[in-house]
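re: that chain from earlier
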Amino acid sequence: MKRHIKKYLKRHFESDFALKGSSREAFPFDIIRLPNGYFKSFGRKNRDKIFYVIWRNHMGSGFFSNVSQVLCHLKIADIAGMIPVVDFKNFKTLYNENMAVHNTDNAWEYYFKPVSSFHLDEVYESQNVFFCSGEYPTAMGYNITKINGLYEEIYRKYIFLQNHVEEHLKDYLDKFDSRVLGIHFRGQEQKLAARHSFPPTEKQMIKYTDEIIEKYNIEKIFVVTEEQGYLDLFIGRYGEKVFYTDSYRTYQVNAYNLSPREKHRYLLGLNILIDAYLLSMCNGILCGDSNVSEFARFVNNKRFDFIYYIDNGVNSSNPLIARYLYGVKKRLPSNFGGLLNRIMIS
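^ sequence. v structure.
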């Protein structure tokens, strides 16, 4: 497929760009290093521009998996000299509603401002449109905090919250008037997901929260979790130290399988986006492996006083085994096949 795309592009662009000593210099981007994707010409508009359409296949994934994928493809577009656009309108995600939200049908723009000045309607009347593969570019790695230049060169250039999201954030900023520990306690479906990291246990989270409070003179605890039972646990133990947003939570039920409110999918995205940005404002965090805590660390840009990261290992790649493995390992000692129970502090 990639060879076919390059052959098509070479034939297409040779008529529009004069050769400058070598065939490689004839093109407005490096055709040799072109990423996997698809090329399409829709019309005659913008003949001097090449658009890079970022989309996610299979309805995408969790919110920050989608955001991380967009960031990586923005970097590819930037390197290639193409103009990026995010199309979560025609290529829907888990967060799309069947009605406009804040006057847009593009789920990316529910939350973030467009990454370029070109509207999708104009892009799809243009001559040179390159679509990414729809996959996460795994060559960059899944940990966005470890991708060189992604924060300084890409995030700060392209990622801006919509005004209504900024207003939601302001509702909580007065809570950060003292030393705050941020907790991200993932549970529910992560316990069952094949090839995903095992989440922390209640015992682990309480143990390290107690340690952090004493060690770092913590006055408040900001809890991010989709599991109401985990929030109840922290409120019961730490009382008025605990604060949290109005995010939707359930007792051991996946919120994506419910429709309890108007624009529920959009609001799930908004809830976790607000939570992640607030998490990034804490003095330090306690977390397991997740895209939410990874994004908070990314936005914080190495300004946390401390990070406590609980590593319990990775679930089986077999979906049937994965449904039960966490429950089994949780009951076993680490040295007898249980969870890794490894803490990394930085």
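The longest strand covers residues 306-311.
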